[in-house]
Design a protein that fits this description.
alpha+beta
């Protein structure tokens, strides 16, 4: 042991205390951290051996705290630290107090030693106990994998454990093997033993683990996986099996490894495209610390909406943005309530979480190939820990929202409207298909049936009164949609039409209120149709001189998408012939703009409706802020579109290449 670090520690030992500054500890490397821990142990043990205990209890306490702090901050051998701590406890218990102090003083010292003993044991548990706990949790997951449940139940139970403790995805067993490697070995064993059903189960669990958000497969793990694969191939070759059977099993082993590597390749490709276009995929560890302690606003002035609220969404929806209620009033008018999940009831607008959401712009949904596990790749606006557990309007749970209440007369005219901060409860979660089935029955007995019938009748009146131009509707549906919001509002079904009409109405009415009162707001705008048509004719004439008809159509389509792309502005504008103004306010968990609209409603609408005045200077500040946000959202929207298009092109090229290869192999087989 070098005396260099002992001398360094003694500089910070002042009398009967030891104080090592945090700024010093933060500059350590892993090796330096280990040397400082050794030095502290040496000094403490020297003091114990020299019987300096009656006056230096605080010195030992300080030393233990510093060891604990360094052990948590750096990657050091925790087993070694535990061993040294246990040695220290033994030495402490064996120390006799040689002092001329009175009996009372001796008793005080003994009590202090007993307390120090407890502190050391506690420190040992804090430093080393976490790994032991992880190994116990690892054993729990391993037990779930090995039990006799069907595969669906197994997957559910594994996901439940990993949702509670996502860090356990990288935990290790007593042999130092990660969960991923453990399951991979099990899958290889089933290939060796020709257990087809078990192989399918382990393969399914393997890809479930592989797709987890916080999985960390290091370079060493990949090398170890390749090594294990080679070992099992050798075992198959050595087995007493027919040659054909050996080849089949070796092929299956190679195929499993390739599928796993393909997952890595897909992730690498996705990350490289995302980085190129400035798209953030993961949330940083520092950012996730803020997620664990949500900012809940105090003294919220909200109204309880005690109505039969329902949500209608696609089967794949996890976070529920909106719930609806509708009832018929005594004057034969309809009262329609649209409650939108409130993000700003939990997090302040200036918080790091909201600013991160504005940087991201919107959630992105990409299709994943079946070989890569299928489903969607989701790049969320907000972490799932926030959307699923805190904000989402889940069935039977009270949540904060912003509720938009409209009174609709028999001709479909909006007689009155109000936008209030509320507390709501989702009475029933429905899929679009389930809502359609109920509506087609034409029954009006239960509260659910009555609500859906009222919604259909009210939206039929509204759709006649407030109708988008045919060209605009067609263009809107044909545009690329990385947020998947158009897909959710399926306009082919009755329930889909209800959603489409209600959300368009809500967005339009919010924008209209601000436009009529000449107050700052962000609007969803488009180029005018006449301008688009003129520019399209000019582009077509130029293209006809240089390209063939097929290429003209392709480039014309791209030009239309670019020209008709919506954007955000503080000045209203729309492509619809009805000259309506609109904004985005109905999906706060998937679009940054909707969070901004919620903020402006709180800061301006609520103040004006309460009868108070907003100073002109304050309004100008809001306008400047909105202009900056519009620029940021438009810039990020362009990045998202380019990322979405490039990713789809790369996926399409891969698919085309695979189809060509498949066709080539088929022809080769026929030729043979």
């Amino acid at each position: 042991m070098s005396s260099k670090y002992i001398k360094e520690i003694r500089k910070y030992a002042k009398g009967d205390r030891i104080e090592l500054p945090d700024r010093k500890i933060k500059k350590f490397s892993n090796a330096t951290a280990g040397n400082y821990i050794n030095a502290i142990f040496e000094i403490m043990e020297d003091r114990l051996r020299s019987k300096k205990i009656d006056t230096t209890i605080d010195f030992y306490k300080d030393g233990i705290e510093i060891i604990k702090k360094i052990s948590k901050m750096y990657e050091i051998n925790k087993e070694y630290v535990e061993k040294r701590l246990n040695n220290f406890i033994s030495l402490l218990n064996a120390t006799n107090i040689n002092t001329k102090s009175k009996d009372e003083e001796k008793e005080e010292i003994n009590n202090a030693i007993a307390k120090l003993d407890e502190d050391v044991i506690k420190a040992t548990q804090e430093i080393y106990g976490t790994e032991k706990e992880e190994k116990e949790e690892f054993a729990l997951i391993a037990e779930i994998i090995e039990n006799s449940d069907n595969i669906i139940r197994k997957r559910e139970r594994i996901l439940n454990v990993l949702n509670e403790r996502p860090d356990l995805i990288n935990s290790k067993n007593n042999n130092g093997e990660s969960l991923f490697i453990y399951v991979y070995k099990k899958a290889l064993e089933t290939i060796l033993n020709n257990e087809e059903e078990k192989y399918k189960e382990y393969r399914s669990i393997l890809f479930l683990i592989k797709l987890q958000k916080y999985i960390n497969i290091r370079k060493e793990d990949k090398e170890y996986i390749s090594q294990i694969t080679d070992e099992y191939k050798n075992l198959i070759c050595e087995a007493k099996l027919p040659e054909k059977e050996k080849r089949t099993r070796i092929k299956k082993t190679t195929s499993l490894l390739k599928d796993l590597l393909r997952q890595n390749e897909s992730k690498i490709v996705l990350n490289s495209i995302a980085e190129k276009h400035g798209i953030k995929i993961e949330f940083s560890k520092d950012f996730m610390k803020h997620v664990k302690q949500p900012y809940v606003l105090k003294n919220l002035d909200v109204k309880n909406i005690e109505e039969f609220n329902i949500s209608i969404d696609s089967t794949r929806t996890r976070e529920i943005d909106d719930i609806l209620y509708c009832k018929k009033l005594e004057n034969n008018h309809y009262e329609l309530g649209v409650s939108i999940a409130s993000v700003l009831s939990y997090f302040d607008f200036d918080s790091e979480i909201i600013q991160e959401a504005l940087e991201r712009g919107s959630s992105i949904y990409l299709k994943r190939s079946k070989k890569d596990g299928g489903g969607n790749i989701v790049i969320p606006l907000l972490p799932e820990e926030i959307t699923d557990e805190i904000i989402s309007l889940n069935e039977g749970q009270e949540r904060y929202a912003r509720t938009y209440i409209f009174e609709i007369d028999e001709e479909g005219t909006i007689v009155s409207e109000k936008f209030i901060r509320s507390k709501v409860k989702n009475s029933k979660v429905l899929t679009i298909e389930a809502a359609d089935k109920i509506l087609k029955k034409n029954s009006n007995v239960t509260e659910l049936e009555q609500t859906l019938t009222c919604l259909e009748e009210a939206t039929n009146l509204l759709s006649k009164k407030y109708k988008d131009s045919e060209k605009y509707s067609k263009e809107k549906l044909n545009q690329p949609d990385p947020t998947r919001l158009k897909e959710d509002a399926n306009t082919k079904s009755i329930a889909g039409v209800i959603l489409n009409v209600v959300m368009n109405l809500t967005n339009s009415k919010i924008a209209e209120w601000f436009h009529q009162n000449n107050l700052p707001m962000i609007y969803r705008c488009k180029q005018k149709e006449e301008k688009v048509n003129e520019e399209e004719k000019l582009i077509t004439k130029e293209l006809e001189k240089k390209f063939k008809n097929r290429e003209i159509e392709k480039i014309r389509k791209i030009a239309r998408e670019k020209e008709n792309k919506s954007f955000y502005s503080t000045k209203p504008g729309h492509a619809d012939k009805t000259k309506k103004v609109s904004t985005h306010a109905t999906s706060c968990m998937r679009r940054g703009a909707d969070i901004v609209v919620e903020y402006i409603l709180r800061e301006i609408y609520d103040v004006v409706e309460s009868g108070r005045e907003i100073p002109l200077e304050k309004l100008n500040e809001y306008k400047e802020l909105l202009e900056k946000i519009c620029y940021k959202l438009n810039y990020q929207s362009a990045n998202i579109d380019n990322f979405f298009i490039e990713h789809n092109n790369v996926t399409a090229k891969k698919k085309k290449k695979k189809e060509k290869l498949k066709e080539h192999r088929r022809h080769k087989k026929v030729y043979k």
